[in-house]
Amino acid sequence: MIEKPDMLDFSLEEVEQAVQRLGQPGYRAKQILKWLHKGVSHFDEMTDLPQAFRQSLNEQFQIGRIQILERHHSNTGDAIKYLFLLSDHNIIECVVMRYKYGNTLCLSTQVGCRMGCRFCASTINGLVRNLSAGEMMSQVIEVNRELEENGERRIGNLVLMGTGEPLDNYSNTVKFIKMVHYPMGINMSYRNITLSTCGLAPRMIELADEGLPVTLSVSLHAPNDKLRRFIMPAASVYPIIDVIEASRYYYEKTGRRITFEYILIKDLNDRKEHAEELAELIKGFPSHVNIIPANEVSGLDFRRSPERTIQRFIRELESRGVVVTRRRELGLDIEGACGQLRRSRLTGRRNQRYER
Ligand code: SF4
7-60: which CATH topology? Predict the structure, then answer.
């Protein structure tokens, strides 16, 4: 049987075309998107549309839904991790992080990842497939719906930092960013969206040219190519100097300060000379370094740097004029690091699909 197209995957222009094909005025597209992004699961719930039109929509389209499979609340109450079941039985995860200023959602852009970062659980079994823009939207919609049901604030910030390399799924990711910004729907400001990349330099430049002023967070994790290639095999393709140049270009085009992520790993990239080299590398345009003490993932060798080493590294950077933040560690008791919970769920199964 041929599957009906999923309207959650549609941009405004695509919904307008569909509406016109069905002989309806163009403004119906915004009405439909308002309902879709609010989280309705059936066209019949779109009560301001004529009944015959709803019937035609039912016949020609579906509203793809992802299903909450598990939710885990951290003991401290500052994070909720969700496992979602996709329509093809793949599993993805996302995390809600509660901050004083509001709720942030860290969402996935791929099932698995092929970038191979050695500290990351998401990449252990490679890439399964890209997520569609609608599947990314669904993560926001489902979480918003649940937060609202519980009398909580909706998601105010998005970070594309869950499983997957967003720029490896470029067109769907850019489509999603535009869709989540629609005023009739989620209405997320571009400035409240952060996209994290492991440094796909040509795609960073392409993104700069899109004119979407999202914050770019670039994973460096090492101050030179040799060490970076060891930690992140994808760095073999894009030398660190190209990544820095692409970051500078992004800043110049968008005016957005770049965040450089640096995961501190015991006895690997946490020495004084690494801090010196890093400060030298990134000087010259507005940026800051976000230090992430490594999460220890079962099956992976990397260990977290001791607290005094973390403090020393931060001091070294600051003494060289670098603006440094340290990532707040939320949800450690619920396997908060990228891909850990999904991996635990899949461990022991025959493949990466969830068998019910
Ligand atoms: S850290 Fe991100 S880019 Fe690297 S393997 Fe994990 S999901 Fe992929």
Answer: DNA polymerase; domain 1 (1.10.150)
pLDDT tens for each residue of 123-170: 888 999 999 999 999 999 999 999 999 999 999 999 999 999 999 999
Ranges under pLDDT 50 in the chain: 336, 348-356
Q: What's the CATH fold of domain 67-346?
A: TIM Barrel (3.20.20)
Tokens of 70: 């598990």
Rounded to the nearest angstrom, the distance between the alpha carbon of 218 and the centre of ligand 1 is: 12
Instruction: Break the chain into its structural domains and give their ranges.
Output: 7-60, 67-346
Residue 260 Cα to ligand 1 midpoint, Å, equals 15
Spacing of C-alpha 101 from chain mean position: 19
Q: For ligand 1, pick from 120, 159, 237, 238 the residue to mutate: most ligand atoms within 8 Å of CB.
A: 120
Residue-level pLDDT at 76: 86
The DSSP letter of residue 222 is S
Q: What is the 3-state secondary structure (H, E, C) of 284-308?
A: CCCEEEEEEECCCCCCCCCCECCHH
Helices (H), the chain: 12-21, 28-38, 51-60, 133-149, 170-180, 201-210, 225-231, 240-254, 272-282, 307-319, 340-346
Q: What sign for the dihedral angle of Cα 328, 133, 66, 51?
A: positive
As separate numbers, helices (DSSP H) first and strands (DSSP E) second, the chain gives 11, 12
Which residues form the catalytic set?
A: 93, 338
Residue-wise pLDDT for 266-306, tens only, equals: 999 999 999 999 999 999 889 999 999 987 776 677 889 99
Give the pLDDT confidence score for residue 352 in this predicted structure. 37
Q: Which ligand 1 atom is the nearest neighbour of the CA of 123?
A: 5
- At residue 124, the pLDDT reads 87
Give, to the nearest 10 degrees, the angle between helix 307-319 and helix 272-282: 40
Cα 183 to averaged position of ligand 1 atoms, centre (Å): 31
The pocket around ligand 1, CB under 6 angstroms, is made up of 113, 115-117, 120, 122-123, 163-165, 198, 338
From the CA of 161, give the closest atom in ligand 1.
2
Phi/psi at 288 (nearest 5 deg)? -145, 160
